[in-house]
Amino acid sequence: MASYLVQRLAGTIPVLLLISLLVFLLIHAAPGDPTLLLLGEETNAAEVAKAKAQWGLDRPLYVQYLKFVASTLTGEFGKSFKYAEPVSNVIKARLPATIELAIFSIIIAIVLAIPLGVWAGSKPNSWLDNVGTTFGLFGISMPSFWLGIMLILLLAGVLNILPTSGRSTYGIAGPESTGFYLLDSLFQMNWKAVWDALTHICMPALALGVNMLGILMRVTRSSVLEVMNEEYVVTARAKGLREKNIVWRHVTSNALIPVITVVGLELGTLLSGSIIVETVFAWPGVGSLLITALNSRDYPLVTGIVITYTAAFVVINLVIDGLYAVIDPRIRY
Fold it and tell me: I want to staple 221 with a disulfide (CB 3.0 to 4.6 A). Which of 29, 121, 238, 246 is the partner?
């Protein structure tokens, strides 16, 4: 098992290098000079040349890429043009907000989608199946940015029960220790800050998680339908077991493999797909940071964020591979 995971990890190194090269070339090919964007259009030629020399933009492209790879191996990703500090520090400051949002989104999706999918799959063509299927199609078809705007209009504009944007209310949060607002508030037993964190994350997490909810519900339903026709389920019914026990103890546990696969892939998608939702709700995460970096042509920061997203996908896939063996021991062989 360990050797298999090591081989998978080693196989991702060429993928990371290829992605970094593609992103590096694409961001350099984009129109716009970062020196003029950051210093201003009225900057004279001497100041532009000095800035390019300071940022290494006067060197050949392959030299810039090799320098970036060397800095990446040390975990720094170079120095940000806009923020004038190491890219890793800029990303670390924003990453907890994105992870917190992704975790809440996936919790919402799992808690609602798996019971709906199991009930719909165990009773095909029933009213419950029709309701679950309709709900799943709604989640898959609904654009997250549109749903986010509708939530803001309804819950914040009309009902005025949730804040429209941001991660916290000024003056309520205590000192940061982990970077996770809710976790820090729980450690400090600051219940006012805990409630403030929940109210701020509710709408963006719902807007981000509804799409995954629909996908996960449909996959769970299909998997349960397939398992319901297996011979051991027929045997369990012949033994007189209650249908409820058959569904939740025998069917659901054996239908989880494809569901876990989708959860893992969608978790990686939530991390990278939170860009639009973070922009709509002014959420101070890595997604909104990427938009800022792209607008200012901050080459090291853009490439560093993309590499971080890629590494997150790799880690999540490795965790999913390990969970396979835990849920279904046959996979170990």
Answer: 121
118 with 37, same domain: the answer is no
Q: Where are the alpha helices (DSSP H) in the chain?
A: 2-29, 34-39, 45-55, 61-73, 87-122, 127-141, 144-151, 181-187, 191-228, 231-238, 243-245, 252-254, 256-280, 286-295, 299-327
Check residue 331 and report its DSSP letter: G
| Dist. CA 321–CA 144, nearest whole Å | 29
- Are 274 and 178 in the same domain? yes
Global pTM value: 0.80
Per-residue model confidence as pLDDT tens digits over 199-236: 999 999 998 888 888 888 888 888 888 887 777 777 77
At CA 253, angle to CA 247 and CA 258, rounded to 5? 115
How many angstroms separate the first and last alpha carbons of the chain? 9
Count of domains for the chain: 2
Structural domain for 105, as ranges: 92-332
One domain for residues 151 and 62: no
